[in-house]
From TrEMBL:
Organism annotation: Paracoccus seriniphilus
One annotated GO molecular function: protein-malonyllysine demalonylase activity
Protein name in UniProt: NAD-dependent protein deacylase
Pfam families in alphabetical order: SIR2
Catalytic activity line of the entry: N(6)-acetyl-L-lysyl-[protein] + NAD(+) + H2O = 2''-O-acetyl-ADP-D-ribose + nicotinamide + L-lysyl-[protein]; N(6)-succinyl-L-lysyl-[protein] + NAD(+) + H2O = 2''-O-succinyl-ADP-D-ribose + nicotinamide + L-lysyl-[protein]
UniProt xrefs under InterPro entries: DHS-like_NAD/FAD-binding_dom (IPR029035), NAD-dep_sirtuin_deacylases (IPR050134), Sirtuin (IPR003000), Sirtuin_cat_small_dom_sf (IPR026591), Sirtuin_class_III (IPR027546), Ssirtuin_cat_dom (IPR026590)
Job of this protein: NAD-dependent lysine deacetylase and desuccinylase that specifically removes acetyl and succinyl groups on target proteins. Modulates the activities of several proteins which are inactive in their acylated form.
Family: Belongs to the sirtuin family. Class III subfamily.
Textual note on the cofactor: Binds 1 zinc ion per subunit.
Annotated Gene3D superfamilies: SIR2/SIRT2 'Small Domain, TPP-binding domain
Cofactor section: Zn(2+)
Amino acid sequence: MRITVLTGAGISAESGLATFRASDGLWEEHRIEDVASPEGFVRDPDLVHRFYNDRRKGAAAAQPNAAHRALAELAGRHDLTLITQNVDDLHERAGSPDVIHMHGSLSTALCASCGHRWPAPAEMSPQTPCPSCAALAARPDIVWFGEMPYHMERIWAALEDCDLFAAIGTSGNVYPAAGFAQHAGRMGANCIELNLQNSATSRDFDHHIRGPASETVPGWVASLS
């Protein structure tokens, strides 16, 4: 069976990582446009670097939970494409062999000048040079508002080719991910949502499992054996 899974902030929240909440316009007490947009980075790169330095520190201290581990187990038993909106590396540390980070990763840095990527140091600043071109143009390798998510060709192909699509811990508020269930369903996939509560796109799913991801995901994975 070919399975495509999308994970969102809800799966990492149980590991202690704060969820992104667009509804109140704040993220960790900062305005979203100040820390998650190219314009915000141009206005105050020091603030943006400090913000992501803190996110990187928090992610490094967090540990994978039972949901992350269950998905790693699933990858060993089925043809799984794992897509995440999260920028932490908890899936990888749980043992998932191939994770598509559509919104980028805290683990890498990106040169805004030449496009080079490299492992991000724990602390970055506007004075961090690119190791390829030496430009002082380092930024977090994060997809901000107004930017195109990564790996979309591979993601659309996985959605069109899967037998089962599951969304775990997602709000359904952010496109293009909010359209994944509808697209997979049109192509014939069975769609299931695992979430604490209804999302903005719950109507697009055939089945729903409610509860914390660390409890629902292991049970769901076991049912697929």
